[in-house]
Amino acid sequence: xxxxxxxxxxxxxxxxxxxxxxxxxxxxxxxxxxxxxxxxxxxxxxxxxxxxxxxxxxxxxxxxxxxxxxxxxxxxxxxxxxxxxxxxxxxxxxxxxxxxxxxxxxxxxxxxxxxxxxxxxxxxxxxxxxxxxxxxxxxxxxxxxxxxxxxxxxxxxxxxxxxxxxxxxxxxxxxxxxxxxxxxxxxxxxxxxxxxxxxxxxxxxxxxxxxxxxxxxxxxxxxxxxxxxxxxxxxxxxxxxxxxxxxxxxxxxxxxxxxxxxxxxxxxxxxxxxxxxxxxxxxxxxxxx
Length: 289
Known about the structure:
alpha/beta; two-stranded antiparallel sheet; 10 helices
């Protein structure tokens, strides 16, 4: 569909109040899932982030990379095991996690952002002891529970005009490496930064009242309502930790948290710079009238 110049102008004018709302503020984007596996969707996400950065929004990109980690472990002949949805991580697997996340994926994302006109630097939770962690569960090995976040490396990059690209590898004072869940890390980082919003990209459209009916998407929800949906079983399985991370981020001081479908092209822009959005928005207080 061809868009005329008048339509382009109307789109820009419509987005202006949202650009003004977010300009100069921090937005954390948690990136993973199928949007990371499709080159077309990956390009869409990078374009969205660069556009937000160019209009003055301070974007922090936090990424996972589970499928690529599993793929490399398979090539090594190393079996992957999960407990409660988390990867069992021995010392060798922790080294693989660091190699894939802080190496291949991080540098690829930095390169894509720069090709699209952005300025980006990749850092991991080990750099500057940014993500301090301790063992989460003896059954999981080197899977980390975040104990503290040093935001200074992130703030330094933002001050210099860069987009920080953060790999979710943690460490402890003894130098042990930990595999950190990307949703957990993004929520904690957003909270410590007192971000304006956290956008969590997933493989679903948002929270559904009926998981089999996409028309039951909940556009806006309070943290109390989200907790009730967990207790009632409407939010179940793998969605529980994702929703809990969104609730935690709000409680830690993030103004708004979004769960959006990362499989939709330019979903970040549709959620942040339009009236309707495409996913579920978590808020702390009263709903928008």
